[in-house]
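Batch manifest, entry 17 of 40.
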Amino acid sequence: MHTSILRRSLAAAAATGGAAALLLAAAGGAAAHVGVTPDKTSANSYALLTFAVPHGCDESGTTRVAITLPAELNDAQPTVNPNWTVEKVTEQLPEPKKLADGTSITKRTSQIVYTAKAPLEHQLRDTLILSAKLPDAAGTTLYFPTLQTCETGQTDWSEIPADGQDPHSLKAPAPSVTVTEAASTDGHGAAPAASHSTEQASAVTGGGADDGGAEARSWAGLAAGVGGLVLGGTALVRSTARARKTTSRSAAEPAAK
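Output type: structure tokens
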């Protein structure tokens, strides 16, 4: 009987460990690509875009991350990261582009390039944050093709899904943000006006705390789930031990009489 109880306990513990391993593997797969997490997606708003670099190229450390801005954006303000140097790359427009305020531009920022001061080790992660004004185009998906260069090799995160294609089916999807309807606070459907300088100052001073909110929440949920499985397995083993003690006492009582 004791052997049967022990076998059931070991099976339960193995199942608990297996479920935890599956959860960890799933989370690792979900966070395996370079992605972007916006703090807001409202049309015509200033957003902090947090790009997560979760690993290197195979076993090689990351040395450079070049983020290409979509044509819908004219500029982006990079947040300083002490582990990287950063530069803006500009391009000449084929013809002047007229802005909403009536002015025109002949150049735009086409890329933000971060270069590591020391290679980011393969098993470590980091985040790079940009501040950008989203276009007044709700429903539009903005793609940010990102070239990750490592000490050996590189990964070009630039695949864009075709119409109706699941982005998760792509091997190296480009980070993307989908613009949503503008927020309304005045009750008449109009979004409040925002000051460019005020928003950019806020981005520079407050951006460092954002560490990929969605990913952090995902890992927190995973930790809670694994903790619950472990506690459940522990409780089962303890209850089995109590059952064994009770059985032993019951078997000993007739002999004592």
